[in-house]
Design a protein that fits this description.
123 residues; mainly alpha; 6 helices
Amino acid sequence: MSVFDALRYRLRALFHRAAWERDLDDELRFHGELEEMQRAPPSADEMRRAKALLLRSIPLDEASVDAIAYGLIDRVRLDLPLDEPTRAARRYLALGAGDVEAAFAKWLRPKDLVRVSLGPTPQ
């Protein structure tokens, strides 16, 4: 890190203390939300919005001739069925709130997450 970057970071922490503290609060709240997702299933509205987001992304992933070709080549290379996007959509629709909670509990470890930031070495 350059001296300029270290100075800029320190000046931000000094003169923009509220923004710096807000960033820290956001990070702590994010960790708390992840831990909550491990203990409680998402609400019906959260599930509906997440499924809609996932389903809308499927046609956008292959919205050009090149993307369709690369998608087909990738599926062949990975030994997946050619209709994998359709199968994925069916899996998304079949997911329940308990499935999401179980996946978060099994695969996510909020305490092992780290924040990577540009700035001086902590003293």
